[in-house]
Structure formats: C-alpha cells, structure tokens
Amino acid sequence: MRSYFSRYIYSAVIVAMVAITPACNKKLDVVPGQNISPDQITTAGDVDATILGAYKSMQHYNAYGERYFLISDMMANSSELEFVGTFQNYADIFFHRQQKTNSIPEGIWDRSYQIINACNIVLDKIDLVTDADMKAQLTGEAKFIRAIAYYNLSGLFGKPYSDGNLNTNLAVPLVLEPVLSSDDISKGDVARATVGEVYTVIENDLKDAAANLPESNDTRANKFAAWAFLARLYMAEAKYPLAAAAADSVIESGMFNLTANFSQAFGNSANSSEDIFAIQQTNQSNAGTENNGMTTFYGSYPTGRGDVQVNTAILDLYEDGDDRKAFVYDGGSISGIDGVYTGKWATLYSNLPVVRLAEMYLTRAEANIRNGSAVGDAPLNDVNTVRSRSHATPLATVTANDVVQERFRELPYEGDKLWTIKRLKLSTGTRPYNDPKLTLPIPQREIDVNGKLQQNDSY
C-alpha cells in the first residue's frame, strides 16, 4: 500500500528546493509535482539547497512555525492557557476530544516526514560534497534536524518514554532512507517503531550532529543546539548524569548569555544572546498567516486573533516584582471576550526560540539534584541565575520540585509543559501523564492506506 506521507514527502522537497535554488550555483531541473531523480542533485550546492529546504520547512505552521509548540501546550492546558477561538479542530484538542480524522495530526505528520525526507536525501547525497568542513556541517545539520523532527513526532504520537516497556510501546515509523521518486514510496509503508528504537535513533543522530557541527553556524544549527536537545532527551529518559553533562556543555561553552531583561528574549528579528536554536522568520517567510501561527493565535487583536489566552491561574506562580508575571498583559476585549495574553508571541515576523539558555540552567540544576551531583555549578546557583534575571527573590534552598516549578514559570507557552508532565509522570487537571488523549491519533488516512500501522488507544 502507499501511505500519504510517503507520497507527499518527496514532492515537498521539490517545492523546498525550487524555492531555495536561486541562491545556489546551479538551478535544479525540476518540474514541480514530478519525481526527483538522483541525477537532479549533482553538486555540493544542490545538497546545501536541500538542507536549506529542510530549515524552510520547519518554519511551517505544521512544525515549529506553530504546532510543535502550540499543540503540545494545548494538550497540557490545565493551568497555563485557555482556548476561546472558533476553530473546531483546535478546540477538540484543547478539550481532549480529538478524533482520528482531526486535520491537525494529519498536518503535523505530513510536514514532519517531509522534513525527515529532506534530511535523508542530504545524507544519501553527502558524498557529492568534497570539502571536508562543508561535508561535516551538512551531515551534522541533517542528523540534527531529523532528530528533532522525530523527537516531536514521538512525543506527540507515541507512548511516553516513562510509560512501561520501551521495547513494546509504539512510537512512529522510522524512515531513514530517502524517498526520491514514486518508485521509492514503499519505503514509507512501514510499521511503527517502538519508543526505544526511535529514541535510540534520536540519540545517535544528535551525537553525530554534535560531533560534526561547528561551534558557530550563523542562524543554522551548531553543535550546542545538538547538545541542548541531547539534554532534553536525557531528561525524558531520566538519565540525569548525561543530562547534566549535556546542559553543562552548552552553558560552559561561553557562546550564549541570558538577555539582560526577560522580555528581550522574545519578539526579535535576529537571534538573541540566549537563543541556542531558533526558527528564523521574516515578513516574507511569514507571508499571510501560514507561518505566523504563534502570533496569530497568541497575539491580541489586531495583531493576532487572540484565540489562545492566558489562564490567569498561572499568575499565582509568580511573586510581585517578577518580570515574568508582568510579561502577561491585558489585551482588552475581542468580540466581547476580555483577553489576557502572553508577551512571548506578541510580535509578528519575529524569530521563534526553540531552546534557550535559561532552560539549560534549569535542566542542569534539576539533573544535578536528582543525581546528587554538582556538575558545572550548584543547583541553587543555577536556579537563582534564572530568577535574578527576572528580579525574582533568590531562593535560599532548592529541591527538584522547586526547579520544576521554576520551569513552569520560565517556559510556559514554549512547548515544554507536556514533555515535563510526561517525563515526571505528573497530571494535567484530572488526566494522568499517560492518558490516551495526551497523545495524538495516527491520522486515519495513514491507517487506511498502510495496513502495517496500528492506531493509538482510545481512537
């Protein structure tokens, strides 16, 4: 059978490469909608164009342009946000009543495998690159982007890592070879891999990325972005010594600094000093609202729709004088609904921070506490470094739970809450961390055309 994602991933790379080709040395002879044949990728510039296409694809609203952040936060909705919009597919996810035909999981699934396929093409064609430094960089970028796509796919569609048997619990299909033409579509008709198998691929890809990427890479991924995601991965796996070491590698690199003020970490047209990895956005990459989903949903009218608003219960987490509390603002009335909003996503066309230095301080602190170690610095110092930037009162002592609460103060609306709930086996409202509705359904159209796929529980 031919699955939809197999049919779409090769055509999506055509679009991405055609869009990026004018900046390259050679125009690819590609007819949109037709197959990519191996002889159409013939130079190092073509390989670079393909990885740039993957970066471009991550800007899309079905990836980091919106849904990697927003959908995970909507599923973990109880104490941070409210959905007051009219889009039924979003409302169903927020209220945990999504069905297997919901268009949002379909979009995330398709876009993620398009991104993965672009990376697979780069790795397949990497020997066209003869310059050693360029070859290492492109290898590292492809491994990094593929890893974070699988990290999001597994987190949204698979069982939590913390929930039972890693060798039997299902995640998502592993497709590690390129789909270059319709003849290759069968490569995507595979069963779901286990959580353990997918996490092994993610870890290996991130390690390879860290080994191959340069320390500085302009706005593209660098080795510290790979280490930051390794820190996330190891926290999910409760491998605290490794998580502390990975976060420490980022912090002690000296490449990043907390912004002077909390607000300066957001709404920027260029990477801030604490952005370890960010999605680049401009008014051109954000044509219309397609890639503008965070501001469209979180921004108050007329900048955005105001569909996603702050649950004011979160304000109880902050003391008076904490700048993070002041970063929530009253946007007035939208269609008769009084709105309270976060300032994190209030600016159109601004970059989207994927992982910030503040997270690494909190990760190192929590991992050290849980491991009984002091890699890099004492946990109390790490937490107070983050708190002092926002003018919160320094803590006198710190526990692992204190650090988790600090994550909830520092990182709301950045896609962190659901992953923290799942790794620590917490609950969201009355739903435990492994509630089936905290996992998206495998798109029904995929089930229909690929008999090897098994649907998630409750769908």
From TrEMBL:
RagB/SusD domain residues: 350-427
Q: Which cell locations does it reside in?
A: Cell outer membrane
- Please state every residue range assigned to the domain named SusD-like N-terminal: 38-235
Show the GO cellular component annotation of the record: cell outer membrane
| Classification via SUPFAM superfamilies | TPR-like
**Xref: Gene3D superfamilies:** 1.25.40.390
Which keywords fit this entry according to its UniProt record? Answer: Cell outer membrane, Membrane, Signal
Which InterPro entries does the record cross-reference, listed alphabetically?
Answer: SusD-like_N, SusD_RagB_dom, TPR-like_helical_dom_sf
Top-rank lineage group of the source organism: Bacteria
* Predominant subcellular localization, coarse grouping: membrane
Q: Which Pfam families match?
A: SusD-like_3, SusD_RagB
Concerning its family, UniProt says: Belongs to the SusD family.
Protein name (record): SusD family protein
What species does this protein belong to? Chitinophaga rupis
